[in-house]
Structure formats: C-alpha cells, structure tokens
C-alpha cells in the first residue's frame, strides 16, 4: 500500500505509523517527492487499509493489488521522467515530451573508436553514448570487453560531446570501479533477474536502464524493476530488446506490443533497442521508427564507424549514415506523436553562455519576424535594453532556440484583443514541457502609415501589410481607394516599401519601422480600434541546471497552468471548483484539442495571485496539488510578474 502523509505530519506521528507497519512485518520505504512524502509499505501479510487511514498524519492510503507496487500506475498515476545531467549544464529527460536516442558501439574497443563513434552519433542528434566495457558474451571465448580502460574511453568521449554515458554492469562487484565513470547503468537481458545485482544497483540511486530478459514476461520484468525501485532508486528506464520466440529469421522478436501494454501498467519510461532484437543492420531502421510510433520514449541502437571491424555484434552495427537517416526520420515522426526530439546544447552555445557570464554580455531574447516587429518592441518594453533581441523565422523556432540554449528568452505573442488567441503558441506551451513562462506583458498595438520621403495620401496607390494589419485598419483604408497587398508580416511591408522607393506605395505597420527602413510616418494611429492590445509571454528553459533568473525583482502576480480532465460529467466543473475554493481569480481559460486524442482537451488558464499573498510560489504549488486531485496532467507553466 502507499501511504500519503499529511504535509504537517510531526516526527512522532511518523514514527508511530512506522512502528505499526513494522509490527505487521511490512517493509517501509520513505519517498520524499517534491510535493508530498509517501511511505511505500510492502509485505506478505494482508492489512486492512482503514487501520492505517485513521492514523494521525495520514492523508490517504492507496491499496495496490499488483505484485509490483512501486512500479505500478496505481502507485504513481503520472509518467515518471528520469533526469540525467550532462556536463554542459543541461538535463536530459527520459519519459517526458522529448524523444531520446542513445547510440554507440556494442563494445568499447579503443580510445579512437569511441571518439569517432561519439563524434558521429552526436552530430546526428544522439543524446547519450553507449558502449560496453564488461560484455556478457554467450561464449567465454568471445571478446569480454576492456574493463576499466574501456570505461575511461567511454567517459572521455561522452564528455567531449556532452553525452552522458550508458554502460552495462554484469556483477555488483564492479560497482566500485564503475561508479566514477557511469551516468546510466544498463542491466542486460541476461541479468534481468539477477536480484542481488538489482538490489545493490538500486541502492546507488543512479539511473538504470533495465532490459527485458530473453524470455521474461512483462510482469516478471516489472517485478525486476520493483527490485530496483524498492532498493532506493526512482530512476528506472525499461528497455524492450526483443524476446526469444520460435522465429529464427531475426535474432529475437521485438515485442512492440509491450509498449502500450506497459503504459497502462507502469509509470516508468520505456525505450526500445531494435539492434539486439533484429540482429541485422538493414532491418533496424524501420523498427526504430516503429518503436517511436508505438509510443516509446526513445531508442538505444548500436552504431560503429567501421562495423566490419567490430569486435562484437558486427552484423547489427549501424553505419553512421544509417543512424543519421533514422534521426532525420524520427524528427519527422515526433510531431505526429506530439513529441519533440531532445537535443544536446552545442559547444558554441555553451561557450557563448560562459563567455557572456564572464564579459557580462547581454542575454539573448528571440522573437519571430523581422526587425521592427511588434514583438521587438515588446522585448524593449519588457527588458529595456538589458537583452539583445534576435529574430527567428517562426513561433516554433522561438521555442526550439530557447530549448537548445541558443537563446535565453523568447518573446511569444499569445493573444490579441481583437484577433483572439494565437493557438499555435498555446499548443507550443503544452508541447514544450521543458519551457516555463517567466514574465508577461501587454502591448498596445498602434498602426501607422509609412512611405518614402515625398509621398502623401494623394500619391499612394498600393498599401502593404500583414492581413491582420489591413483588417485592423479597414475603416481608414475604406476612405482611400488603394490597392491592398498582403505581406507575411507588418515589418516585411515596411521593408518592401523602402525597397521599391516609390511614392505610390505605403505600409501599415509599427511606427518604429520608419527609423529602421528610412521611411516617413504619414499618419499615426490608423487602426479602427484604439483599444487594440497584444499579450506576450516571456519564455525560458527549465531543463537547464542553472535556470535563467526570473526576470526582474517584481513579486509574481500571475500563474499559468495547463491540465486535462477525465472524460466524465462535471469534470471541468470540479476542477474550476478548486480555483474558486482557493479564491484564485481566473482571467483566461482556453481549451485546445490534444493531438492524437480526439475529443480530449488541454485547458490552459491564467490566474491572478492576490497581492496580499506572502509566498506566491508556495501558494501556487500547494494549489496545484489540490488541483491534481480532480484534474489530470496538471503542470504549472509559470509563476511570474506581469
Ligand atoms: C548490449 O546492449 O550490448 C547487450 C548485450 O544487450 P542485451 O542485454 O539486450 O543483449
Ligand atoms: Mn551488443
């Protein structure tokens, strides 16, 4: 059973619960989560949950009927994300919205081989490096691995490219030598049920990839995961690598049906190793893609720069070009699955970040469009001149640049008071779960009519602008008999008019473009609606170990959430009740369809934090815990000053 403790539980109440459970021969594990502390109590004797429920300090008791407890969905309804830091201040997350690719040779063979492999796989987008230093070979006469020397090569190569390293542990006696080199331990198929190894490994608390045994059932596999979890680690990644069947055409039979089955049984992340399942390189790419399509959180594949020289598993080693193609295909497939491919920050952006720290160069804030866009003005208003504004080509690119560390902040339009919501960006906020809102502002949109020197209302024949700009100034334009021409942005219109150098053309855009493009302002405030506003949010990445500082000294006065609800009568009503009970005034509620889940919606909402609130972060965190009781997938997008 899982015993959720009250937040204000006293030490004596805790001790009291522990001694009662111990008296019933239950093994207790205390798990301190970010939001709550729970006791996982496991034992052979059945116990009436009501006996525990009534104890002081107990919030609730969740009985678990499965033989595996801590690995079960009942124990933890939301997906677990295993976080693995690299040496570039970044955290690789397995199990969230990002797909990871672990690649490298079967075995570490030499220093040069590892450096070459790491270079190749990182260039194609791998996020972790694999390589065995202790190889569990079927024959004692096959290459057994380089041992500690191999671990050194693996680590050196991984560090050079910012890739955490994954390597197999075959016996617990190797823990002392391995521990300084390894980021993620792999338990191989042959050791899945080596329970003594699992117990010792679990106690380290380090991430573990647990491969499925050659002939293990899904339940046996989860029981092995339970050994790891109950020994002290919460960082377990399951890896399907093919099982033994009567089929001989492939090395093993890749059981992709295990993925959807596991999803309902466990909260643990799942990756797939198509290399050991297929055994032949040409058959691996389609199954790597199928793994992602089946819902895997990533893949682990064997890649060798010279497969023909590989000392183990040569036939299944992919050429770097094959791996590169797989990664390009996964990039295309990811959006279909509502996911993004994880990226390692480039050394350049790492160097840049460090150099900026030293020279106090300004952080970068990206916006979509050209110089002169309203978003650029929003950056100026929000940051004054403490950041450097840079352009990207689309809203999606703003998010990607921030995630990749190419920019520190992004300025994202979210809603216009006359044109409505910018749905693309609501969707980006839910899709990019490693992005937070760190600030917001509302900008008054005032359009002006710009033209080259010498032009007047009488000389103009054509007017250029974004369709939104043209429609927002329709009253003014109606009074003129001009030819209206659409452009991709309002700033593009200004650039075009400047380039054409004719007094017959004018642009409708922000007046700041006059300076940028050498134009004159013929008329200001030509918009129909004088109260025309766009709300922007400022985003930053939260997967960086040292998150960029929250902007400004101002106390947070806004919080944004996303959540989903069960598909049942009154589910949204219940969720909204939590806001009412917390006296949180909601000033925005949007619903967006969830890709791939027809008729299920993300609810996005903004709430105002009352000014008398002393500790907004604590208050909103506690509130989100309450919301989780009636809503699903609750995520705080940000607690920030607007
Ligand atoms: C390996 O990953 O190199 C390996 C030996 O895998 P498995 O345990 O799945 O056979
Ligand atoms: Mn191998």
Automatic annotation (TrEMBL):
**What does the record list as GO biological process?**
L-phenylalanine biosynthetic process
Q: Which PROSITE patterns match?
A: ACT, PREPHENATE_DEHYDR_1, PREPHENATE_DEHYDR_3
Q: Which residues form the Prephenate dehydratase domain?
A: 364-541
The record's annotation in Pfam families points to: DAHP_snth_FXD, DAHP_synth_1, PDT
Under the heading Gene3D superfamilies, the entry gives: 3.30.70.260, Aldolase class I (3.20.20.70), Periplasmic binding protein-like II (3.40.190.10), Phospho-2-dehydro-3-deoxyheptonate aldolase, domain 1 (3.30.70.1140)
What GO molecular functions are on record for this protein?
A: aldehyde-lyase activity; prephenate dehydratase activity; transferase activity
Q: What is this protein called?
A: 3-deoxy-7-phosphoheptulonate synthase
Q: Which UniProt keywords apply?
A: Transferase
User: CDD domains, per this entry?
Assistant: ACT_CM-PDT (cd04905), PBP2_Ct-PDT_like (cd13631)
Q: Locate the ACT domain: which residues?
A: 560-641
């Amino acid at each position: 059973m899982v015993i959720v403790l009250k937040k204000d539980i006293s030490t004596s109440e805790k001790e009291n619960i522990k001694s009662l459970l111990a008296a019933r021969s239950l093994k207790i594990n205390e798990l301190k989560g970010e939001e709550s502390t729970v006791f996982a109590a496991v034992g052979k004797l059945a116990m009436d949950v009501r006996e525990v429920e009534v104890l002081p300090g107990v919030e609730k008791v969740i009985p678990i009927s499965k033989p595996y407890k801590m690995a079960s969905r009942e124990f933890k309804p939301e997906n677990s994300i295993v976080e693995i830091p690299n040496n570039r201040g970044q955290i690789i997350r397995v199990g969230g919205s990002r797909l990871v690719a672990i690649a490298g040779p079967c075995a570490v063979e030499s220093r040069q081989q590892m450096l070459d492999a790491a270079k190749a796989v990182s260039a194609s987008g791998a996020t972790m490096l694999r390589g065995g230093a202790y190889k569990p070979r079927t024959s004692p006469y096959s290459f057994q691995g380089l041992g500690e020397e191999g671990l050194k090569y693996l680590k050196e190569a991984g560090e050079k490219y910012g890739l955490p390293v994954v390597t197999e542990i075959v016996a617990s006696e190797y823990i002392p030598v391995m521990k300084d080199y390894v980021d993620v331990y792999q338990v191989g198929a042959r050791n899945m049920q080596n329970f003594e190894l699992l117990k010792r490994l679990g106690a380290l608390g380090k991430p573990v990839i647990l491969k499925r045994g050659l002939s293990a059932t899904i339940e046996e596999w989860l029981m092995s995961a339970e050994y790891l979890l109950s020994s002290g680690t919460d960082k377990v990644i399951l890896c399907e690598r093919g099982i033994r069947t009567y089929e001989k055409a492939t090395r093993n039979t890749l059981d992709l049906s295990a993925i959807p089955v596991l999803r309902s049984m466990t909260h643990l992340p799942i990756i797939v190793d198509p290399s050991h399942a297929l055994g032949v390189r040409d058959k691996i790419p389609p199954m790597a893609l199928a793994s992602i399509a089946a819902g895997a959180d990533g893949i682990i594949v064997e890649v060798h720069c010279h497969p023909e020289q590989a000392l183990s598993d040569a036939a299944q080693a992919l050429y770097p070009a094959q791996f590169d193609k797989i990664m390009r295909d996964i990039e295309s497939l990811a959006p279909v699955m509502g996911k993004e491919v994880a990226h390692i920050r480039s050394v350049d952006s790492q160097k840049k970040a460090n150099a900026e720290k030293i020279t106090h160069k300004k952080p970068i804030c990206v916006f979509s469009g050209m110089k002169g866009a309203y978003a650029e003005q929003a950056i100026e208003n929000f940051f004054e001149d403490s950041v450097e504004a840079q352009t990207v080509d689309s809203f999606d690119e703003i998010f990607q640049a921030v995630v990749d560390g190419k920019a520190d902040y992004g300025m994202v339009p979210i809603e216009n008071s006359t044109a409505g919501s910018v749905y693309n960006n609501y969707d980006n906020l839910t899709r990019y779960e490693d992005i937070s809102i760190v600030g917001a502002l509302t900008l008054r949109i005032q359009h002006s009519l710009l033209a080259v020197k010498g032009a007047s209302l009488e000389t103009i024949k054509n007017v250029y602008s974004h369709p939104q700009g043209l429609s927002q100034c329709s009253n003014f334009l109606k009074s003129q008999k001009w030819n209206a021409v659409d452009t991709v942005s309002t700033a593009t219109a200004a650039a075009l008019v400047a380039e054409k150098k004719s007094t017959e053309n004018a642009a409708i855009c922000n007046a700041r473009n006059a300076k940028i493009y050498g134009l004159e302002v013929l008329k200001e405030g030509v918009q129909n609606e004088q109260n025309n506003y766009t709300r922007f949010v400022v985003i930053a990445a939260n997967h960086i170990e040292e998150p960029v500082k929250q902007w400004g000294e101002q106390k947070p006065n806004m919080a944004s959430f996303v959540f989903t609800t069960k598909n049942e009568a009154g589910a949204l009503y219940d969720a909204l009740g939590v806001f009412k009970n917390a006296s949180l005034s909601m000033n925005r509620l949007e619903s967006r369809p969830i890709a791939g889940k027809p008729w299920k919606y993300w609810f996005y909402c903004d709430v105002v934090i009352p000014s008398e609130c002393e500790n907004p972060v604590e208050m909103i965190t506690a509130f989100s815990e309450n919301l989780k009781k009636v809503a699903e997938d609750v995520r705080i997008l940000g607690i920030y000053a607007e």
